[in-house]
């Protein structure tokens, strides 16, 4: 099965939510990396949009940062016109 690339708008929204949440908690990239057991360059490259976190690390970071991936997905679906507001 051929892998399809992640929608760039969705990817950018996810990254921005993670950056905003990390900054709101006053965590450095290194501190977040330590909490989810990845290298600091991994967080830096993720926030720069050059790479993705593995799914398990994405969820660990979401828990640490208080992010709901369901809410981010719903917001993107509305912004992208995939669903009407209130249906997501």
Write a structural description.
With 88 residues, this protein is mainly α. The chain has a single domain, classed as Orthogonal Bundle (434 Repressor (Amino-terminal Domain)). It contains five helices and no strands. It has helices at 8-24, 29-36, 40-47, 55-65, 69-79. Helix 1 crosses helix 5 and helix 2 (29-36) packs across helix 3 (40-47). The termini are far apart. The mean pLDDT is 87.
Main beta sheet: strand number and arrangement?
Answer: none
Rg calculated over all Cα atoms? 14 Å
How many DSSP helices?
Answer: 5
Q: What is the number of beta strands?
A: 0
What is the level-2 CATH architecture name?
A: Orthogonal Bundle
What's the CATH first level?
Mainly Alpha
What's the order of the H and E elements?
HHHHH
Kindly give the count of domains. 1
> Going by CATH, what is the homologous superfamily?
lambda repressor-like DNA-binding domains
- How confident is the prediction overall: mean pLDDT? 87
Oligomer: single chain
Helix/strand class: mainly alpha
The outline comes out as globular
């Amino acid at each position: 099965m051929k892998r399809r690339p992640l929608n760039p708008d969705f990817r950018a929204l996810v990254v921005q939510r993670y950056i905003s949440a990390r900054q709101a908690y006053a965590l450095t990239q290194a501190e977040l990396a330590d909490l989810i057991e990845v290298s600091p360059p991994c967080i830096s490259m993720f926030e720069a949009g050059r790479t993705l976190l593995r799914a398990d690390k994405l969820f660990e970071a979401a828990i640490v940062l208080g992010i709901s991936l369901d809410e981010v997905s719903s917001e993107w679906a509305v912004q992208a016109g995939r669903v009407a507001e209130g249906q997501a």
